[in-house]
Design goal:
The protein has helices spanning 25-39, 53-57, 60-69, 92-98; strands spanning 4-9, 43-48, 76-79, 82-86, 126-127, 133-134. The protein is of the alpha+beta class and 136 residues long.
Length: 136
């Protein structure tokens, strides 16, 4: 495939955040989506701030985002080193698109990730195919 995703998660109790008596459904879905990507042959690396702070400190873009916005910038998701999402977990459709697993003849996918705090970290908004504000 050639795509590698890196996910820089906020501090969580475990690597996926889907442990304990009450789990966030968005995290459960995202963990399932990442497993699905791996089964499609996509490389996925996931870092948890509480367990791997060195990965955050060692990546300039992530470190700068944390210095500027704090943990509210997380999660940060990179595809081949390029930021594709910030401050929210993207949908499977978005991950699929970024991984190049599906070609969309109409145009780019512009759905808003869960809990997105800005347009993919770019500070702007775009319009989806129906004219609604969304994230790039």
């Amino acid at each position: 495939m050639g795509i590698e995703f890196e996910i820089f998660d906020p501090a969580m109790c475990c690597a996926t955040g889907v442990c304990g008596p009450s789990t966030d459904p968005a995290l459960t879905q995202f963990a399932a989506d990442l497993d699905w990507l791996r089964r499609q042959g996509v490389a996925v690396r996931r870092y948890n701030l509480s367990q791997e702070p060195g990965a955050f400190a060692g990546h300039t873009m992530v470190r700068v985002a944390l210095e500027r916005d704090g943990e509210k910038a997380l999660p940060i998701i990179l595809a081949n080193g390029v930021e594709v999402s910030r401050a929210g977990y993207p949908t499977r459709a978005m991950l699929t698109r970024w991984a190049g697993l599906v070609q969309d003849p109409v145009g780019p996918l512009t759905s808003t990730p869960t809990k997105i705090g800005g347009c993919c970290g770019q500070g702007g908004q775009s319009k989806d195919r129906k004219g609604s504000a969304g994230c790039c």
